[in-house]
Design a protein that fits this description.
- The protein has one domain.
- The strands form 2 sheets. Strands 1-2-3 form a 3-stranded antiparallel β-sheet, with no helix packed on it. Strands 4-5-6 form a 3-stranded antiparallel β-sheet, with no helix packed on it.
- It is mainly beta.
- Helix content is 14%, strand content 37%.
- A hairpin with a 3-residue loop joins β2 and β3.
């Protein structure tokens, strides 16, 4: 059995992995198939769960810091990857203004020009 890295690939970075809710449940959509296919969560791992250490002056309402990793699979196309949900790091503002998202938009523009 392969060792789980719990790190996502380029396929889930830069805004390529999106999701939605149905009632109060969140679902990840397959970045290969699009909104029509919901990814299965095969497994999870709590990477961090502890006292508030990240920016405590600004985050007075948080009860603790956490990072939870998910192993994802698409039944339709076989896409298999990992992603994380956390309450540390990027916590507000416009995602489109982050360095990562700017790079993703640049890459998409280059792909269009080349394609």
């Amino acid at each position: 059995m392969p060792i789980k890295t719990w790190h996502g690939s380029d396929a889930v970075e830069g805004g390529k992995l999106v999701g939605s809710t149905d009632t109060d449940y969140f679902y990840f959509h397959c970045p290969t198939c699009g909104d029509s296919e919901v990814l299965r969560i095969l497994d999870f791992k709590v990477i961090k769960d502890g006292p508030v250490e990240y920016n405590p002056e600004l985050r007075k309402k948080e009860k603790r810091d956490f990072i939870i990793a998910f192993e994802l699979l698409c039944n339709n196309c076989g896409f298999h990857d990992f992603t994380k949900v956390a309450n540390i790091g990027w916590q507000g503002g416009k995602l489109k203004d982050t360095h990562v998202m700017q790079l993703a938009r640049f890459g998409a523009e280059q792909d269009k020009k080349a394609g």
